[in-house]
């Protein structure tokens, strides 16, 4: 199966990402018109504020591109993803990274292992968002933080309409040129349209047991960074 439907069957989603692994970073750069690399990733890095000795779980790390900057700041980073294809590309490109295959619904880590858990553009792809958030809570130490970067809903309605049209039409068209599996990007566009707006996602995070939940819109709400703290 090359394209997962919105039931988010784990095996189908993993296979989809395996199929796009080789060109994933390149396709994202083109589809986001450089915003991912120039704006969204740096803002997320600043929110995480990695430093020497900090233990960070980079969940759904894909090819490890996001983990590299965390490691360069001196943090101890574990890069976890359930797509073996993504991890293979990551290991080839960044052999210094600690890459581990794992399911967000059953994380292979002990309780209270990490100071920060971060996940980017992947929470909307898990089969059970609440269970995934509870697993992230489990492996975070008391007082530790959660940082989520995810597609979101633009705050200005006319912009939201234009954006959704772009996601549904332009992104798959771009993927046909630069991706090894353009059908996957139709799924990713559909999953973006079906995803939770900022406030409902914040409530879902709180319901999973996290506290002090806030979010910051980036680029008019095209994406948002949600942050939360594990109770002490």
Automatic annotation (TrEMBL):
EC number from the UniProt entry: 2.1.1.163
Pfam families reported for this sequence: Ubie_methyltran (PF01209)
SUPFAM superfamilies: S-adenosyl-L-methionine-dependent methyltransferases (SSF53335)
Biological process according to GO: menaquinone biosynthetic process; methylation
The keyword Transferase belongs to this UniProt entry's keyword annotation: yes
Transmembrane segments: none
A Gene Ontology molecular function term of the record: demethylmenaquinone methyltransferase activity
Positions of S-adenosyl-L-methionine binding: 63, 81, 103-104, 120
Pathway(s) the chain acts in: Quinol/quinone metabolism; menaquinone biosynthesis; menaquinol from 1,4-dihydroxy-2-naphthoate: step 2/2
Record carries keyword Electron transport: no
Enzyme class: transferase
Catalytic activity: a 2-demethylmenaquinol + S-adenosyl-L-methionine = a menaquinol + S-adenosyl-L-homocysteine + H(+)
InterPro entries, sorted: SAM-dependent_MTases_sf (IPR029063), UbiE/COQ5_MeTrFase (IPR004033), UbiE/COQ5_MeTrFase_CS (IPR023576)
Superkingdom, natural source: Bacteria
Record key words, sorted: Menaquinone biosynthesis, Methyltransferase, S-adenosyl-L-methionine, Transferase
Similarity section: Belongs to the class I-like SAM-binding methyltransferase superfamily. MenG/UbiE family.
HAMAP family (UniProt xref): MenG_UbiE_methyltr
Function: Methyltransferase required for the conversion of demethylmenaquinol (DMKH2) to menaquinol (MKH2).
Name of the protein described by the UniProt record: Demethylmenaquinone methyltransferase
């Amino acid at each position: 199966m090359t394209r997962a439907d919105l039931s988010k069957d784990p095996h189908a989603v993993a296979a989809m990402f395996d199929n796009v692994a080789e060109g994933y970073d390149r396709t994202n750069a083109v589809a986001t018109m450089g915003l991912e690399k120039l704006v969204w990733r740096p803002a997320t890095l600043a929110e995480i504020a990695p430093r020497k000795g900090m233990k960070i779980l980079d969940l759904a790390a894909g090819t490890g591109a996001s983990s590299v900057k965390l490691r360069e700041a001196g943090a101890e980073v574990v890069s976890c993803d359930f797509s073996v294809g993504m991890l293979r590309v990551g290991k080839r490109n960044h052999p210094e990274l600690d890459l581990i295959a794992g399911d967000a619904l059953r994380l292979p880590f002990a309780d209270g292992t990490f100071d920060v858990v971060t996940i980017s553009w992947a929470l909307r792809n898990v089969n059970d968002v609440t269970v995934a958030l509870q697993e992230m809570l489990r492996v975070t130490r008391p007082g530790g933080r959660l940082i989520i970067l995810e597609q979101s809903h633009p705050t200005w309605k006319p912009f939201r309409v234009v954006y959704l049209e772009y996601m549904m039409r332009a992104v798959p068209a771009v993927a046909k040129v630069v991706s090894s599996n353009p059908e996957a990007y139709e799924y990713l566009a559909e999953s973006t349209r079906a995803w939770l707006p900022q406030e409902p996602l914040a409530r879902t995070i709180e319901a999973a047991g996290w506290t002090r939940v806030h979010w910051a819109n980036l680029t008019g709400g095209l994406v948002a960074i949600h942050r939360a703290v594990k109770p002490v």
